[in-house]
Amino acid sequence: xxxxxxxxxxxxxxxxxxxxxxxxxxxxxxxxxxxxxxxxxxxxxxxxxxxxxxxxxxxxxxxxxxxxxxxxxxxxxxxxxxxxxxxxxxxxxxxxxxxxxxxxxxxxxxxxxxxxxxxxxxxxxxxxxxxxxxxxxxxxxxxxxxxxxxxxxxxxxxxxxxxxxxxxxxxxxxxxxxxxxxxxxxxxxxxxxxxxxxxxxxxxxxxxxxxx
Length: 212
Prior knowledge:
This protein is of the alpha/beta class. Helices cover 44% and strands 14% of the residues. It has 8 helices and 5 strands; from the N terminus they run H-E-E-H-E-H-H-E-E-H-H-H-H. It is globular, with a radius of gyration of 18 Å.
């Protein structure tokens, strides 16, 4: 089965229905044990779409960096986060939706229609929209959003790794790798760890038992 590459077909279909500004919306960072969840909204110029846009997971880090810079120059891009505190207060799904609504609201001009990666429309998103499962491999606008969110979050985790060495965040972006879990056991929990996630919660709970 041939691999699919994203197209502008879904955006053109929305334009045929009278919507002019079509935004792609995606998030990254549901699975990590540390760091915020990041969402991006992208409205592409149909006459100036960077070559090679694809699902961010299918691109090298170097290629993502190049496309990130191109997109920031030629598209209307908005990036937003939901904090670790919000993830712990709500849950990761709700927090990712909060970040997505924030990203959409941060565009220079409001979107008229939104293509959303996944199968759920976030609560509070009142713009006409459609969901696309694996949308980052189908829609160029969602692919653009996925690249921007991924690069932004990866760079953020590299910065946080300088402040909190020993967890490998510059390599694992906060995901639960062997190195990260070993760092948790040897260095403990930082303010950037998600306390509602089991590996972090279990360490805190064990520490509480030992302390008590």
